Amino acid sequence: MPSTNLRNLFLQHVAQTSDNPLNIQIDRAEGVYLYSGDKVYIDCISGISVSNLGHSRPEIIDAVNEQMRKHTHLMVYGELVQSPQVLLAKELTALLPDQLNSVYFVNSGSEAIEGAMKLAKRYTDRFRFTAQKLAYHGSTQGALSLMSDPFFSDAFTPLLPGITFMDQNSIEQIEASITHETAAVFIEPIMGEKGYLPCEIKYLKAVRKRCDEVGALLIFDEIQSGYGRTGSLFAFEQFDVIPDVLVLAKGFGGGLPLGAFVSSKEILSVMTHQPVLGHITTFGGHPVSCAASLAALNLLLETKIHLDVPRKSELFKSKLKHPAIKSISGSGFMLAIEFEDAVLCRKIIDACVLEGLLVDWFLFSESKMRIAPPLIMEDEVIARVCGIILDKIQESVQPF
Ligand code: PMP
Q1: Pocket lining: 47 vs ligand 1, CB cutoff 6 Å
Q2: 226: Cβ below 6 Å to ligand 1?
Q3: Which residue lies with its CA nearest to atom 12 of ligand 1?
Q4: What number of other Cβ atoms are within 10 A of residue 19's Cβ?
Q5: What Rg value do the Cα atoms of the chain yield, rounded?
Q6: Which of 64, 70, 102 is nearest to 86 (CA)?
Q7: Residues near 298 by beta carbon (within 8 Å), at least 6 away in sequence
Q8: Predicted local distance difference test score (pLDDT) of residue 400
Q9: Distance from the CA of 396 to the center of ligand 1, in angstroms?
Q10: Per-residue confidence (pLDDT) for residue 30, from 0 to 100
């Protein structure tokens, strides 16, 4: 079918979330490239931190095909022993601190956050949550309740009661924000939609200490920052602070839908009684998604591609020098380029996309441009990407 027809049908029959979608038809994707007819796009966003190992990795495709031939869905989560799930949980927990030894598999980031919220309510017998201002934890009603910015949530009230918001890195606000009534504190170690802003180590340590004092669970949302994106397997490894619950999705699935909340067997055991079936999911931990995830994890561990991310991140920063760039924040391949204002930022993003460079914006930081490429992006491509960005900045600030 001609591309124009398909794009019209997309607008007509696929429910839209925005009145101005990219509407680019992608025929196939490989490595760091997306192919659209005879146009090639360089992927600088990895489907928002999903395709960490690049697109169409043969190892992941083989694992998916092999699992497809054995079986796909068999039964709701938690009844039958399915080897991709078990092996993934075993391998993942072996890489985590001892107390993070049990994995509850779900389908997506939002569902994992919902599960973590339910877990904290059950474990602490409390219902109040504390979250960071301008964090993003998902779009379902519980996750949306953790969003401080009313722009996206106000239309859907009433949401959950008892949510307190605190400023990232404000040690002064911790005591009042986390109390003996708090069930859990949700933290993005590298805040995503606020514009890739890392938490300070001393702040995370203070939050950990306060959670211990009052008996609240500390929950790290590593949905974007996990799976090598910041140079370590998980960002929290660089902060020397261990959460009670680790929430995963996006890159975790190796390109397929998968989420999880990981905690201790002791904490997670509350989901199995009073009532039984504390969280029910039909497709959670789908065997094909788990097979893809396991292949992706093995690939990451074998290639150690994430260990080179900090160097490549510096390469981006060293090449992206222009008077119109106010700052570059972030960690590893979570980079945010800040411009003077939202209008200029949007102009540069649009110009990059038109040129074949897929970059993006942030929900809560309109003057920043998102750079989150697959971790496999090579130096020569990074140089090309930076060249395009600098050209587009120059054209945008001096249009004539
Ligand atoms: N937490 C964070 C930090 C995210 O970036 C996202 C997705 N952008 C989510 C949660 C929700 O994940 P999902 O879209 O898979 O529901």
Answers
A1: no
A2: no
A3: 109
A4: 6
A5: 21
A6: 102
A7: 59, 91
A8: 55
A9: 31
A10: 98
Using alpha carbons, select from 139, 117, 121 the residue that is nearest to residue 219: 117
Ligand 1 pocket check for 132: Cβ under 6 Å = no
Percent of the chain with pLDDT over 70: 100
pLDDT in tens, 360-374: 999 999 999 999 999
E-strand ranges in 177-268 read 182-187, 190-191, 197-198, 217-221, 245-248, 259-263
Query: Is residue 109 lining ligand 1, measured as CB closer than 6 Å?
Result: yes
Q: What does the pLDDT average to over 167-175?
A: 98
pTM over 0.90: yes
pLDDT tens-digit series, residues 322-368: 999 999 999 999 999 999 999 999 999 999 999 999 999 999 999 99
At residue 3, the pLDDT reads 80
Shortest-distance Cα residue to atom 13 of ligand 1:
109
Tokens, residue 267: 């904490």
Between β-strands 163-166 and 357-358, what pairing exists: parallel, antiparallel or unpaired? unpaired
Q: Please provide the average confidence, as pLDDT, over all residues in the chain.
A: 97
Q: Whose CA is nearest to atom 7 of ligand 1?
A: 138
CA pseudo-torsion sign 81, 85, 90, 93: negative
